[in-house]
Amino acid sequence: MKKYGLAVLVLAAAMSLGTVGISAMAATGWTQEGNTWVYYNSSGGRVSDAWRQGADGYWRYLNSNGTMAVDAWVDSDNYYVDASGLMVSNKWLQVTNSNSDSGYDWYYFSQSGKNIKDKWEQIDGKWYHFSDTGAMETGWILDDMYYCEPNGVMVTGWKKLDPPDSYADDDNDNHSGPFDTVTDDQYWYYFATNGKKAVPDENSSNDNIKQKKINGVYYCLREDGAMQTGWVCVTGDDSDTIEDYRYVDSNGQVRVGWYSAEPPEDLQNNYDHDVEWFYFSNKGVPKVGPARGSARTKDFERINGNTYLFDEDGVPVYGLQKIYTDSDESEYTSYYFGTREQSCMMKGKFNINESGDTSHYYFSSTGRGYTGVYDNYLYYMGKLQKADSGSKYEVFTINSGSNSKNYVINTSGHIAKGTTVKDRDGVKYKTNSGGVLIKEDDETVDGGTYTSPEEPDWDIDQD
Questions:
Q1: How far is 383 from 370, CA to CA, in rounded Å?
Q2: Biggest alpha carbon distance in the chain?
């Protein structure tokens, strides 16, 4: 923005009003009277409140007294004439203003000389906004939806600023708790290419802090557009569910994918550990699942080639889990999600600690706890079944849907196939090639129910 010295303007005016211009005027037109200039019409009367052009081609204004106005606002304060009386046009001008904090204001006058008022104007490739008086505006303007630099240029893109006055003294979340403290009390705001500030979407169902997608990335913004960091509750000041929170990096971007962090301060009592793993969707929403012990196979989440199950607090479960396999939750089996460090579905054979004792398990290629005979051993919901240590052999009834089979196994869980064995009490059992009981003490067995298999020790409560 260029400042024009009055000395230069006076010199220019003097040159234009010199002997070539004014001396050529006759009785009708411009004439000098004392220290000022006046303009007479064809009737010999002074012209007032009107513009007249000199022989030099420049416009001047006659005030209500009929004298040429100098260094003043004229014509309903829409124009300005300089110290030489010349209409200012196509340029910036700094004018003293006692109402301004700086003592002056900047104005811009168009090619016609009329100053720009109450609108945006692009000047030399940059946008400026002018008030209803025509003064160039700076700072937060237009209901705090735009911001102009001290030189008046409209801001676009990210800008770190003091918040609008209505938020300056706000006891807001970004200065306490899990959020990064901003020591200079400034926040990052984003302004689109048209200068308009990004604010949360109006259709978001929350009261205070919301989300906004900017250039393909989700950010959490306060109602005034201030970027938030750390754990942010998008439905208000706090919530009792992790789904209402987003984790925002120090650069303002909502975290996606896996991330290890302390849980939100308001929810920390829900967690077993100071730091937990969370997985965030491409919109930053934490993955959550059902309460432990009530999950179904449809609740599994496939992520980067592994299968996970999240609990209601957004933490991937680990250990042995009871999983329902039908919609009415009448059938279930076990799945194993490994150690806390693994926390994903495991397959194959494992030795699992159950209340201080080690049990042998087998999980099929789908991860499901196996029921039936595998490698000549009997499993139920993945758990190896064994005869009582004092009985040598025992018959277990395994139900599978509407079918049931009675298997004869020893104390290590090995199936007695195609043979006849006796238990500790001398009861004789004859089996077929599949280890299924066909005779007991030489009497044909047709159905019947024997020992029920032992279910897994469900690891619902984790520590």
A1: 8
A2: 147
Phi and psi torsions of 268, nearest 5°? -60, -25
Task: Please name every residue paired with 56 in a beta bridge, in sequence order, or none if there are none.
Answer: none
Distance CA 260, CA 275 (A): 7
- 69-103 residue pLDDT tens: 999 999 999 999 999 999 999 999 998 875 666 68
Contacts of 218 (CB under 8 A, 6+ apart): 211, 212, 246, 253, 254, 283, 284
DSSP track, 191-221? E-TTSPBP---TTS--SSEEEEEETTEEEEE
- Please state, in angstroms and rounded to a whole number, the distance separating the CA atoms of residues 420 and 439: 9
Cα 278 from Cα 256, distance rounded (Å): 10
How far apart CA 235 and CA 221 sit, in angstroms, is 12
Q: With beta carbons less than 8 A apart as the criterion, state whether 131 and 147 touch.
A: no
Do the beta carbons of residue 288 and residue 312 sit within 8 Å?
yes
d(CA 88, CA 91): 7
pLDDT tens digit string along 223-237? 899 998 999 988 877
Rg (CA), the chain: 43
- CA dist., res. 188 & res. 278, Å (int): 26
At residue 166, φ and ψ (nearest 5 deg) are -70, -15
Tracing tokens 């250990």 back to the chain, one arrives at: 319
Helix (H) or strand (E) holding 407: strand 403-410
SS3 275: coil
pTM of this structure: 0.71
CA distance 456 to 365: 19
Tell whether the torsion through CA atoms of 75, 77, 79 and 80 is positive or negative: positive
Integer Cα distance of 378 and 249 in angstroms: 51
